[in-house]
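Quick one: sequence plus flavin-adenine dinucleotide SMILES, need structure tokens.
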Amino acid sequence: MRRRTFCKSTVAAAVAATLPGCGAEEQQVDVGSLISAISTDGAELSIESGAVSELAESLTGRLYLQSDEGYDTAKQVWNGMFEQKQPAMVVQCTSTDDVINAVNFARERDLLVSVKCGGHSLPGKSTSDGGIMIDLSQMHSVDVDTDALTLRADGGSLLGHIDGAASAHNMMTTTGIVSHTGAGGFTLGGGFGRTDRKMGLAIDNLLAATVVTANGDLVRASEDENADLFWGLRGGGGNFGIATEFVYRLHPFNPIVYGGTLIYRFDKDFLDFYAELHSTVSDEANIEPNFVPGEDGETVAMVEVVWCGDHAAGEKALAPMLAHPGLISGTLGPFPYHDIQTAVDGLLGHGKQYYLKSSFLNELTPEAIEVILEFAGRGTVGSWFQHLGGATSKVAASATAYSHRDAALNFGIMYFGEDPAQNDTKIAAVREYYKAMEPHMAGFYTNLNDDDEKKTWGNYGENYPRLVALKNKYDPENLFRLNANIKPG
Ligand SMILES: Cc1cc2nc3c(=O)[nH]c(=O)nc-3n(C[C@H](O)[C@H](O)[C@H](O)COP(=O)(O)OP(=O)(O)OC[C@H]3O[C@@H](n4cnc5c(N)ncnc54)[C@H](O)[C@@H]3O)c2cc1C
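Reply:
Sure thing.
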């Protein structure tokens, strides 16, 4: 049997240590053996281990096969519902060349590709059974240019890396509400956060991205270079390639914001109050109610308030919230933005069972309020609003691939727990609640929903044909299909 030695994989580090030349990262494989995998359309494939060894040799990062020590850790994604998935291999990239080599390897063999940044895809799109996981999680360096007011982040960065680097200079760009979420999926889908009504979505602050396309080319996209691709990256998700770098606009920012958490009685009075408040309050304010069980098990409205402007102005603008008769507890005052950006990191930690459906509301109507009163009142699953509008609505729907510029709110219904035995019941409860809300909502955030192709078309509205044309240009064989997929035309 032919044998070949290669470096960088972890399978046989112990064996490698006995071989001259490659040190502890060298290993031996039987180049004649075959590795089972899955093609883009789900057919079974056999890949020569010699080809895998060549890929491993080409990397500055590491390649893990299923039998390798470290594989189980390397393949992990955030949602515990998908922890049983078994990619045929994980390529843990540490350089742009690694990404290019992995993409070329996959395309040449028609291998099913998943791309992992933070691994937070709710429907588990960053993993697969039998595919190649291209894992960017080790590529997370972030630099701030204080003169240009820009931040450059590697394509595998987490939102916490960006928040930390920006706030160290009293600056910020819009990131999301949990710091271990990946910047990759978050940004390419749109990117909502506590500052978006003031600063715009993440895509509205994106100045450039560097992308490895399906044919292995490295392409820069900005308003001045490959502007068509730049348009598609801002909302079109991972459909057009793998982003190895993002450049964001920074805004001067006081890392001490004004706000807090207020608990209200959950009733029609509160929902009517919020229906008025969310649409009239200044763009500095981000006000997000969560409908969750209170201390006595009865549903309450737990409202998170962040004012990212002058504190005295915030105190005045938000005074009606403290005067509302349904207020049970809580107060407003100055606090570090970092505290709120990491407050639910543990609650929404890795490995639990999660299921979520969400949709946009252009208006919180009396009919929608009726549904929330009925279903959130049951206390079976949690639901919440993400406050949009403000700067997120001041961009034309056709200016970026993300088109939901009229949305005033995003409404999410989520189950999370530790016990998989509860999944069926809780998923059914989320779906029932969502079905009742659906007539009062319009379109959905592709970063939070798993929906069928027809709905994905409708969801992009008039931007869809342009996205298909881009897909035809940058990924005609649909190599990048584990996402809210835009099929080539
Ligand atoms: C706990 C939690 C909190 C969240 N909070 C917010 C929030 O506040 N605001 C908000 O807008 N969204 C939020 N989301 C949704 C979030 O934006 C999506 O789940 C997003 O996909 C996460 O990105 P990721 O890189 O971690 O995902 P991954 O699972 O790593 O990737 C998901 C998909 O994104 C694509 N992708 C990822 N990285 C790249 C890249 N570098 N290049 C090309 N494609 C890539 C791939 O198609 C991949 O399948 C949250 C999700 C979770 C689980």
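Residues 78, 114-122, 125-126, 136, 155, 176-178, 181-182, 184-186, 188-193, 237-238, 242-243, 348, 447-448, 482-483 surround flavin-adenine dinucleotide (CB under 6 Å). The radius of gyration is 23 Å.
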